[in-house]
Write a structure and sequence with these properties.
This protein is of the alpha/beta class. The protein contains ten helices and 16 strands. The protein folds into two domains: about 270 residues, Zn peptidases (Aminopeptidase, 3-Layer(aba) Sandwich), CATH 3.40.630.10; about 110 residues, 2-Layer Sandwich (Alpha-Beta Plaits), CATH 3.30.70.360. The protein has an eight-stranded mixed beta sheet with strand order 1-2-4-3-5-16-6-15. Strands 10-12-8-13 form a four-stranded antiparallel beta sheet, with helices on one face. It has a two-stranded antiparallel ribbon with strand order 7-14. The radius of gyration is 24 Å and the shape is elongated. Strand 1 and strand 2 form a beta hairpin.
């Protein structure tokens, strides 16, 4: 990787690392990104970009305009952290108890700042104007993407791109795809209600626990027996809540879970069939039921033109051997999906793992970390993408 933009970013690697670590030490939760927004907006303003603050929450846009340029490309970075206690033993560990950048949004913001610095230095090579979109609340549905879009962040934008670090890829690797890249991420809630009583006299009660157990078991058949083997879907029950102590049959049992799909028709099918299955199990056990299918983020669907442009830029920066243009669709969710419903573009991942250094933990792990060389690589690719 000896591309000129890599070399240019290497010259301010210390600034990138210091910036990322400052953001990492001072994480803020969704819709509370006040310091984060101010810090990053100030940095872009110092680079000479025109910043429009508080567009939606703490979200903002920063424009780099070039005389004679035609069109505008947008690059998006998310800003919020997770409600998780960091367990890493590093000198830049989160200073906020129970809050940490364990998804790496600190790296995305820093890559955006690095790309802006590169583009200011190479302004004469720009053929398009550039907009940086700094988005709050990616981690918490309904997310910040829709709010920023409604507030006008895509006005005058012709194409839009988003980046995410990926610790399961070695640093230096880049991946994207055409079509679905992440799943629609939905939440399911079910309550089965019977009649409580003494655990020693179950015949006098109407126990919801056996029914809830049966429902969990039957739900596992939906993907294997109701969804085509050529399609992808996930149904997972992640919480089972019932009762208070050992000798009381409870009145109700609650189930909580998630559904991940890539196809709108399968999404609708699973919503319908989970509801039917819940009702059927409840009726078979003489119980009442409640069912909710809460729709989360839609699936990110990359445009062919966007994936092609991204791959072209990435190949030039890191080499063809390091770019995967057919990255398998991921079952996690991301609200960048909504940007691509309004403008062409693509989402991509930049490798941030390093097995030799023990950097292997996935995102959302309390021990998640990144190889900070990804900051240089991500900055260079974003800049090259904007330069065309």
């Amino acid at each position: 990787m000896n591309h000129a933009l890599i070399a240019a970013a290497e010259r301010f690697r210390d600034w990138l690392v210091t910036t990322r670590r400052d953001l990492h030490q001072n994480p803020e939760l969704s819709l509370k990104e006040k310091r984060t927004g101010m810090t990053t907006a100030d940095a872009l303003e110092k680079l000479g970009l025109k910043v429009r603050r508080n567009l939606w929450g703490e979200g903002f846009i920063a424009d780099l305009d070039v005389p004679g340029a035609k069109g505008r490309i947008a690059l998006r970075a998310d800003m919020d952290a997770l409600p998780i206690q960091e367990l890493n033993q590093v000198d830049y560990c989160s200073r906020v108890p129970g809050v940490a950048h364990m998804c790496g949004h600190d790296t995305h913001m820093t890559m955006g700042l690095g790309a802006a610095r590169l583009l200011v230095e190479h302004r004469s090579q720009l053929k398009k104007n550039v907009r940086f979109i700094y988005q709050p609340s990616e981690e918490t549905p309904p997310g910040g993407a829709k709010g920023l879009i409604a507030a006008g962040c895509l006005e005058g934008v012709d194409e839009v791109y988003g980046v995410h670090n990926q610790p399961l890829l070695e640093v230096g690797k880049v991946a994207t795809c055409t079509g679905p890249m992440t799943a629609a991420a939905d939440t399911i809630r079910m309550r089965l209600t019977g009649r409580g009583g003494h655990a020693s006299r179950p015949h006098e009660a109407l126990d919801p626990i056996p029914a809830a157990c049966a429902l969990v078991s039957q739900l596992q058949s939906l993907v294997s027996r109701r969804v085509s083997p050529s399609a992808q879907a996930v149904v997972s029950i992640t919480r089972f809540s019932a009762g208070t102590t050992h000798n009381i049959i409870p009145d109700h049992a609650d189930l909580l879970g998630t559904v991940r799909t890539f196809d709108a028709a399968i999404r609708d099918q699973l919503d319908r069939e989970i509801g039917q299955m819940t009702a059927g199990v409840a009726a078979a056990h003489g119980l009442q039921h409640e069912y909710e299918f809460e729709r989360g983020y839609d699936s990110i669907v990359n445009h062919a033109s966007g994936a092609q442009a991204l791959c072209k830029a990435a190949i030039e920066v890191v080499g063809e051997a390091n770019v995967d243009a057919k990255y398998p669709a991921q079952t996690w969710g991301e609200d960048f999906a909504y940007f691509l419903q309004h403008r062409p573009g693509a989402f991509f991942v930049v490798g941030s793992g390093n097995k030799a250094k023990g950097i292997i933990e996935p995102v959302h792990s309390a021990r998640f970390n990144v190889d900070e060389s990804c900051l240089v690589i991500g900055s260079a690719i974003l800049a090259k993408l904007a330069m065309g």
